[in-house]
Amino acid sequence: MLEATKQASPSLTAQQLSPYEKAYKLISTHKAGALATADKNGKPHVAIVYCIAKEDLGLYFSTRIESRKFKNIQANQIVSLAFFDELNMETVQITGQVERVGRLSVEQEVLRELIQLRYGEPNWPVPPIKMFEKKITNELAILKVIPTELTYGSFGTAKDGRYQPFFEEVI
After folding, report:
1. N or C of the chain: less Cβ packing under 10 Å?
2. Which helix (H) or strand (E) element contains residue 99?
């Protein structure tokens, strides 16, 4: 896969970043993205999900196993995600394969990060985390999207004020 730097240098402008760095920066600085799934008949469904981005651009999220998105993913593991930075007029569009995380230690880490992202505290709500860790409840699934296609797009304007969209394939 592509080589990554841990974080883009703050002194670099957006034009100096690689397409990978631009995509990772946008994904890792936005809490949520739009997740598109399709059922077994191809009927689409979109939901907003909180995501944790890893350096390999793998994206983790959680969902209830009763949710429509989880049922769709069981029938069709190919999904799309989109992230948008309204201020900078940038977008990242991802298509990938979803897999359910099976290792408890990874599930715990991701769940705590997602709770921190959503609620500002890594241990809220404590009872559901403890129930999940002890496998008393199976209502949550921790899922990972492995990107097969990833495009970074910028819809900014040039110095002359003209609209200049461009797209860069990252994967």
Report:
1. N
2. strand 90-100
| Domain residue limits, the chain | 17-155
Residues 6+ apart with CB under 8 A from 137: 128, 131
For residue 40, what are its two tokens?
A: 């077994």
Q: Which H or E run contains 160?
A: none
The pLDDT score that the predictor gives to residue 7 is 41
Tokens 């190919």 belong to 78
Residue reference for tokens 């040039």: 158
CATH 2.40.10.10 fits 17-155, yes or no: no
Both tokens assigned to 111: 């769940």
Q: Could you tell me the pTM of the whole model?
A: 0.79
Taking residues 24-51, what's their average pLDDT?
94
Cα-based distances in Å from 170 to 2, 80, 156: 8, 15, 19
Helix (H, G, I), strand (E, B) or coil at 50: strand
In terms of Cα–Cα distance, which of 45, 28, 27, 23 is closest to 36?
45
